[in-house]
Amino acid sequence: MINPQIVTEAKEKNTKTHPIWFKLKHNKMTTIGFLVLFLIVCLAILAPILTPYDPAKINVAEKFQGPSLQHLFGTDEVGRDILTRILFGARLSLGVGLLVIFVAACIGIFIGAVSGYFGGIIDQIIMRVMDMLLAFPTLILAMALTASLGPSLHNAMMAIAIVEIPIYVRLARSETLVLREKLFVKSAVVFGIKPIPIILKHIIPNAVSPVIIQATLDVGNAILMIATLGFLGLGAQPPTPEWGSMISTGWKYLLDYWWYPTFPGIFLFLTSGALNLIGDGVRDILDPKSNR
Amino acid sequence: MTPLVQINHINKIYGNRKDVIEAVKDISLPVYEGETLGLVGESGSGKSTLGKLLIGLEAPTSGEITYRDKVLWKKKRFMRPRPGEIQTVFQDPQSSLDPRLRVKQIIFEPLSALPLKERKEKGSIERLHALVKRVGLKVEHLDRYPHEFSGGQRQRIAIARALITGPSFIVLDEPTSALDVSVQAQVLNLLKELKQENQLTFLFISHNMSVIRYMCDRIAVMYKGGLVEIDETKNVLNHPKHDYTKMLLSSMLKVN
């Protein structure tokens, strides 16, 4: 739904008006965020090359070994290398985080544009449903949805996407209300073009920039939420290497084998922290009003 | 002469019971085929609203508009004649072109409402190039974005976009008032020539009496939503009947 060409064009246009790289240099926290994320992404991509171990292979003889040169981050209760599982877990977390937010943003922007463009009763119904979704704390709602759908990674992803949609609907709707009054939209109406083509061709491409900013901010959240659901046993099921469920099994052994929950926790913290820094930076760069 | 557009006792009321604005009050007028009818009046006189009723952006509260003897508004539904038959050029070329589309896509846009066969016939590259050159742009401009153009060039793009469907009636809502004076003259001349070449009928909305005098065959003067005078240009200019028209004319003479 979001044409990648349009997205890059939006970025290009912003490069012209805001010299992004210049601003980035002066924004240390964002640079750090980018570096950390870049490192984690590299580790995730290169995971099979970097470690000789299999993330799912059980080797009870080597269980609960402390950090050593063979196992940098130690091993877990069935002898799997924790570093390996963290690296494969990074693939899952990043992939799932991006995918969930992408899906939520695509659906949200479309619903929001439809709601804002048509107005009237359609708008009222859509926005009241969104208000209902927003009335619940996001995590509680995601938990309730996953619990009722049945605990699995797919259901957790779906639940998080549903929980994230209202944010994009509101954002896209408010943009649409402004765009709807623009003369190029009015002209399209005069030409006799139908509402859905107008929404796809004029409204969504012009409403996409704030949605991209919001999406960058939300990826970190989504990763945290996936981990939280995993921790509660509602997300990825064992033996899938997932940070949340690793921490969940690991914390029971915290006193005796400290390394088990600690390292996945550190990686989760670094990833969502880096993404939050990037999100803040992107917002500062693209929104001239928030200049410090 | 037969009227192309006939407006009969049109009213347009904005707002609800407490806070009512009568934007258009009981206006009846014909627009004849092949003429340029100037609609003049001060800001808020309802001239733009009347234009919007004709192109389908606002529904009249009461009254009837016919186009080639067919009713344009049935209750609140706009009965569009053949798509592309009635076209428009808006005042502000900054906002009337989508900043995310290339000029070529912008000019071709009205065609997407046409039936497939007609779209192919009118959407040929030769026709596009001829049209672009005719309105004073260059073929290499087609791949650029609107923000790379000046106000006058953008208005030329908007004019090309209105002409691509081969319309017979164009509502021009202050097409030159956002442009500076020298560019205004060029665009007005272009419009005049295009009208001759394509046998167009114009409804020309403006608050600028000198522009209206230059462009129009007949003038309709609006004041506070009502029609105060309609006659041939020379009659209105030389023997204005209504006080408001006299005032408009005197203000024009002072400026000149």
Explain what this protein looks like in three dimensions:
The complex is a heterodimer of chains A (292) and B (256). With 292 residues, chain A is an all-alpha fold. Chain A has a single domain, classed as Orthogonal Bundle (MetI-like fold), CATH 1.10.3720. Helices cover 74% and strands 0% of the residues of chain A. In chain A, helix 3 crosses helix 12 and helix 9 crosses helix 10. Chain A is elongated. Chain B has a six-stranded mixed β-sheet with strand order 8-9-10-3-11-12, sandwiched between helices. The mean pLDDT of chain B is 88. By secondary structure, chain B is of the alpha/beta class. Classes of the chains: A mainly alpha (292), B alpha/beta (256). At the A-B interface, helix 1, helix 9 and helix 10 of A face strand 8 of B.
Descriptive terms for the model:
heterodimer; A: 292 residues; mainly alpha; MetI-like fold; 12 helices; B: 256 residues; alpha/beta; six-stranded mixed beta sheet; four-stranded antiparallel beta sheet; 12 strands
The radius of gyration of chain B is 18 Å
Alpha-carbon distance between the two ends of chain A:
34 Å
CATH fourth-tier homologous superfamily of chain A: MetI-like
Low-confidence stretches of chain B: none
Can you name the CATH architecture of chain A? Orthogonal Bundle
Q: What proportion strand of chain B?
A: 25-35%
Average of the residue pLDDT scores of chain A: 86
Low confidence ranges of chain A: 14-18
Could you give the order of the helices and strands of chain A? HHHHHHHHHHHH
Overall geometric form of chain B:
globular
What's the main sheet of chain B like? 6 strands, mixed
At the third CATH level, what is the topology name of chain A? MetI-like fold
For the largest beta sheet of chain B, what order do the strands appear in spatially?
Answer: 8-9-10-3-11-12
Rg of chain A: 22 Å
- Biggest beta sheet attributes of chain A: none
What share of the residues of chain A does DSSP label as strand, in percent? Answer: under 5%
Structural class of chain A: mainly alpha
Helix count of chain B?
9
Outline of chain A:
elongated
